[in-house]
Design a protein that fits this description.
single chain; 478 residues; alpha/beta; TIM Barrel; four-stranded antiparallel sheet; 29% helix; 23% strand; globular; binds ligand G2I
Length: 478
């Protein structure tokens, strides 16, 4: 049997989630993709979807058209575990309008049909981005570029009006390093006004869809999220913005300590917030301790959304680790998702289920495998810094604390040899901004079992062109 289709008139601002579980067994049909399947929902909330439905939140996943078409187990899991879909690639400009006026919706249609057949919401991704936009668009300028943008938004938004619940109208429009606008062909061709035009167009094309601005590395409070905040303020004041998407492509152990406060300040503007592309990458191969740390990180992010009434949901950026974009872009990193390649559940799955109020049987890790390696004498913990990405006037660092005994807290200290100074930090707190840095764990990463590690991170400013130094760190147990 088909579940009732959702393309009824949408209510904004808060859409009532349809309950997937009434009682007993619900059969899921996937007629649109040509292959029937059925699955059963247990009445206890032992799926992400069941737990998220109870919270009236989206638990979403980025899906691949090819896998939905060709892999019945993947399809079954997507239908069973998630109540919201994002097309990982199929709604981007290169997929939907590869040449001027030539629209190709086969893949996007199939994903929207699948969502309807399975009573799932759709978060649309994305209209205006500097990547995956065909060269015919990038080669336009002035009025022609603006016309192409407006026509594209109108055509795609109109096609899915009432079927796509929310849109990333613009994606990644802010620069990484200095809180300026991203230097893209959009900015060069149209000036900053292209953002307002895009939102005005989308609002007129589908007045009932929630409109989001979406970006990465804005999960904590920093120069980039400050810039998004000021753009969001302006768009909200014109009533053409409904929410902010925090992609949350995170590194293990680096959930920003101020992530909740950051999301809250956007909520305070009257906006929704949404975790739109969550993944947490690990240096591969990942060991059991790292997978447990990853579970803790997933738990934390999910809890933040679960606790914020105006957080519309969490979307993970793919199903299986092997599907992820991460290893291709960050060689040596991977394993960032909730499922192994055989679709078995990772510890992170149980943590997300638990954070959604389901039966994840998962307690936050306070102590875990006891290592047989004796600690170096006289040192309860050791810590190191590494430069992740330097630029002319700054750099991002990752810090690692290794516990040589069971820790309930830790403090790290070092002195910068030159003009380096921390500008913002995550997963660490204290006197961080001076020449001598003293930082301690935040709430969630103080308890570290002997042999385990936890990480923190920060950005520095430095003299233009100077080398980002790597000072020696002293680590002291609390
Ligand atoms: O880069 C990760 C994400 C960052 N935020 C915006 C997202 O849209 C972005 O998603 C990724 C997809 O996960 C990848 O699957 O965007 C990439 C492109 O920038 C996607 O990769 C592309 C490959 O680069 C192409 O070679 C490939 O043809 O996927 C295409 C379709 O499979």
């Amino acid at each position: 049997m088909l579940l009732s289709r959702p393309h009824l008139s949408r209510q904004r601002p808060s859409r009532q989630r349809r309950r997937a579980v009434i009682a007993g067994v619900v059969t899921v049909a996937t007629a649109a993709l040509g292959l029937g399947l059925s699955t059963q929902f247990a009445s206890a909330q032992t799926t992400l979807r069941g737990a998220a439905d109870d919270l009236n939140k989206d638990i979403g996943v980025a899906v691949s058209y090819n896998l939905l078409q060709n892999n019945a187990q993947y399809r079954n899991l997507v239908a069973t575990e998630f109540n919201s879909l994002t097309a990982e690639n199929a709604m981007k400009w290169d997929a939907t309008e590869p040449s001027d006026g030539n629209y190709t919706f086969t893949q996007a249609d199939a994903i929207v049909d699948f969502a309807e057949d399975n009573d799932q919401t759709v978060h649309g991704h994305t209209f205006v981005w500097h990547q995956q936009t065909p060269s015919w668009v990038q080669n336009l300028s002035g009025t022609a570029l603006q016309t192409a943008m407006v026509e594209h938004i109108n055509t795609v938004a109109n096609r899915y009006e009432g079927r796509v619940d929310s849109w990333d109208v613009v994606n990644e429009v802010v620069s990484d390093s200095n809180g300026a606008m991203r230097d893209s062909f959009w900015l060069r061709g149209l000036g900053e006004g292209y953002i307002t035009t895009a939102f005005q167009t989308a609002r007129a094309a589908d007045p009932n869809a929630d409109l989001y601005i979406n970006d990465y590395s804005i999960d904590g409070i920093n120069a980039k999220s400050n810039k998004v905040y000021s753009i969001a303020q302006g768009l909200k004041s014109q009533n053409i913005l409904d929410g902010v998407g925090f992609q949350a492509h995170l590194i293990l152990g680096q959930v920003p300590s101020d992530m909740e406060a950051n999301l809250q300040r956007f909520v305070n503007l009257g906006l929704k917030v949404r975790i739109t592309e969550l993944d947490i990458r690990i240096q591969t191969p990942a060991d059991a301790n790292e997978l447990q740390q990853q579970a803790n990180d997933y738990r934390r992010v999910t809890e933040i959304c679960a606790e914020l009434a105006d957080c519309s949901g969490v979307t993970v950026w793919g199903v299986r680790d092997g599907d992820s974009w991460v290893p291709g872009v960050f060689p040596g990193y991977g394993a960032p998702l909730l499922f192994n390649d055989d679709l078995s559940k990772k510890p992170a799955y149980n943590a997300v289920l638990d954070a959604l109020g389901g039966d994840g049987n998962e307690e936050p890790t306070t102590s875990n495998p006891v290592t047989t390696t004796p600690p170096p004498s006289g040192s309860g913990c050791t810590a190191t810094l590494s430069v992740q990405s330097p630029w002319n006037t700054g750099a991002t660092y990752s810090g690692t604390v290794k516990a040589n005994q069971n820790l309930t807290g830790w403090t790290v200290t070092w002195t910068w040899p030159g003009s380096e100074r921390i500008s913002n930090a995550w997963s660490v707190q204290g006197n961080l901004s001076g020449a001598t840095v003293t930082g301690s764990n935040v709430g969630y990463n103080g308890t570290v079992a002997s042999g385990q590690t936890t990480t923190f991170g920060f950005n520095i400013t430095k003299a233009n062109g100077s080398t980002a130094s790597v000072p020696t760190v002293t680590c002291t147990p609390a």
